[in-house]
Amino acid sequence: MSDLLGGRAGLMGKIPFRIDLPGVTRELAVWHQDYRYVRGNTDIITAWVPLQDTPYVRGCLMVMPGSQELGIIEHDHEVLGKRHSPSGVFGREVRYVEMRRGDLLLFHSLLLHSSTLNMSPTVRLSIQARYSALSAPTDPSMGQVIPV
Fold first, then answer.
1. Is pTM beyond 0.90 here?
2. Which CATH fold would you assign to the domain 2-147?
3. Half-sphere CA count of 107, side-chain side, radius 13 A
């Protein structure tokens, strides 16, 4: 992490545990940048870990490669009655990231990504740990930053 962040790194104390139920859109993670939620600085790295195999049918993540280079994007489009998504980014390349239990996906807080709907008969579980350079500002709502 220190190499990726260019200095001593720390783990943010808030580590979400996601439960994505089959066919439920209420908490679907539509297209977004994590920066919108974690704030603090733009160079935060998310470590996304599925706790079971996560193929397309179970709601794998989708990413827009290179979209972090666009900088902070306004999330100006309402989706599913409450979520917000950036409206001016569609038409870019999209890749589905199917993963196996215990795999690790690292991505920049400005990378546009989304989950797909869990269409399987089972729950999709994942953990999202986030890392920041110790010298960079972080939002207190993300918890204490623990040096690693």
1. yes
2. Jelly Rolls (2.60.120)
3. 24
